[in-house]
Amino acid sequence: MLFHRYTGPSFTALLKTHYPELIPSFNKLEVPKEVVRSTTIAALCYQGGVLIAGDRRATIDGHLVVSEDVVKVFKTDDYSALAIAGTFGPSIKMAKLFKTELEHYEKMEGIPLTLEGKANKLSQLIEQNFPAAVMGLPVMPIFVGYDLKEKRGKIFEYDITGGTFTRSKQEPYAASGSGGERAKSTFEHFFRDGMNRDEAVELMVKALSFAAKRDAATSGKLFLIKDVSERGVSDIPGYGEEK
Questions:
Q1: How far apart are CA 184 and CA 126, in angstroms?
Q2: Is-cis flag, bond preceding 161, omega within 30?
Q3: Which domains does the chain have, with CATH numbers?
Q4: pLDDT (tens digit, 0 to 9) for every residue of the chain, 243 residues total?
Q5: Catalytic hit among 12, 39, 76, 218
Q6: Partners of 152 in the β-ladder
Q7: Is 39 a catalytic residue?
Q8: Are 135 and 120 in contact (CB under 8 A)?
Q9: pTM for the full predicted model
C-alpha cells in the first residue's frame, strides 16, 4: 500500500492527510450548557492603514462575566490581523490555525498569500465550522490587512457560512458581536474620509465605549487596538498588548 505524502501549501489539508484525528469533528457535537462568548470587535480604515480592535470581556449568556482580560485581536502575519467574536474556544482555535496556515503557505511556496487569498483561506475555515455554528457555537471574525499594491487598508467580514464581504470601498468600517450594531452606529455618525491614525483611534475608542454603555457583554474598561499599515502590524500605545 502506497503512503501518500501531502506536500501542498495548505496546513489544514496536511492535517487531513496525515493526522485526521486532529481535525475537529462536529457529527456528534454536543453544545455545553455554559458557553463562553466574546464581544465586541470592530475595524476602521483611515488614511494610510486600518485599525482592528476589541474589548477584553468574556461572558456566559451575555451577563455572567468570566474574564475581563481576554485577547480577541491577533496579528496573523506582517501585514494582517484578525479579531474574533462568537464562541470563545472555537474562535481562539481558528485564529491560531489561520495564523499557522499563512505561515505554512509562505514556507512551502516561498511567497505570502495575497490579501484576498488570506481572506479566502479564513473563509474556508469558517465554512468548516458551520455545523458547529448552527448548533450554537458560531465564530464571527473580522479580518483586516494592508494591501501593499494598492497602498491601503482593507476590511473583510464574514457570515457563519464563510461568506466574505469586503468593506474597503462602500463602508470603511465594520463591527461584530453583541455590541457590534452600537459600535457601527457610532462609525456612521462620526466617520469622515481622510482621518489620520490618531483621529481613527479616537473614533474607535468612542465606538467601543458606546457599545459598552449599552451592552453588558462588552467591557468599557480595557480595549486592545492594533494598527495595520505599510509599517506592518503594531499595538496602539495605551490599549493593551497581545499576550
A1: 23
A2: no
A3: 36-235 (3.60.20.10)
A4: 344 565 666 656 655 565 555 555 544 445 455 566 668 999 999 999 999 999 998 888 766 888 888 899 999 999 999 999 988 888 899 999 999 999 999 998 899 999 999 999 999 999 888 887 777 778 889 999 999 999 999 999 998 876 665 554 568 999 999 899 999 999 999 999 999 999 999 999 999 999 999 888 888 778 999 999 999 999 999 886 644
A5: 39
A6: 147
A7: yes
A8: no
A9: 0.84
